[in-house]
Amino acid sequence: MAARGEASRVKLFYFDIRGKGAPIRWLAAQTGIEFEDVRVKREEFHAMRDKGLTPFGQLPVAEFYDKDNNLLCRIAQMRAILRYMARSSGNKGYSSDLAQAAVIDSFLDFEEDVFNAMRSSIFPARIGLPEYASDEAKEAMRRKVAEEVLTPKLAYLIQALENSKSGWIAGGDLSIADLALGSSLMWLNGGVVDGVPAGYLDGKSPLLKEYIARFAAEFS
Ligand SMILES: N[C@@H](CCC(=O)N[C@@H](CS)C(=O)NCC(=O)O)C(=O)O
């Protein structure tokens, strides 16, 4: 019998980019949950926001439906969406063991810490900071963030990979933490962020390089 609130179908609203949609789309493929992937254009996003359909004014947003097609909830926040999808799919990508689920959560939350400064450096106005005075200033800030914030945080991820017997970040099976981390690491390593060259992460550790390559091979 389905647990109370268990979803049978998910409808994702996100832009036609990887971004915060990729881990959700990848999880959908892993779980086999019925999944509708709505790729939203900028003006459609604004219309959704104006109609109050984006709980916190941003995407991704996902609608969850039960087996009788009743809307269970419409929620924002990539991590909340990932957890709910996983928990509705027999904990695929998560764990029914509360301790292991907590370890997965901790890495999922740490993904935010690892990439927060870099994301903020791309959209400074979103967090109330001034735009860059020049392209040089922008690239100098990116390099500073990469060296002073990202690199020490990556060291914790590399340590976790070294400690992991399975090769996945939380030590067990492939989890939603891996999907979020893999997607962000691929993004940062892909040469799309000014001031961070393609392959920037490859020299950090062979294990990290192999971890990123695994996502590129399996999930691109
Ligand atoms: N904490 C949120 C952040 C969501 C977010 O940053 N969404 C961006 C796209 S990746 C967005 O909607 N940008 C459009 C805007 O803010 O106008 C999450 O993890 O889902």
Describe, in plain words, how this protein is organized in 3D.
It comes from Chloropicon primus. InterPro entries: Glutathione-S-Trfase_C-like (IPR010987), Glutathione-S-Trfase_C_sf (IPR036282), Glutathione_S-Trfase (IPR040079), Glutathione_S-Trfase_N (IPR004045), GST_C (IPR004046), GST_superfamily (IPR050213), Thioredoxin-like_sf (IPR036249). This protein has 220 residues and is an alpha+beta fold. The chain has two domains: 9-87, Glutaredoxin (3-Layer(aba) Sandwich), CATH 3.40.30.10; 98-219, Glutathione S-transferase Yfyf (Class Pi), Chain A, domain 2. It is 50% helix and 11% strand. The relative contact order is 0.12. The structure holds glutathione (GSH). Glutathione binds at residues 19-20, 58-60, 76-78. Residues 19-20, 58-60, 76-78 line the site of glutathione.
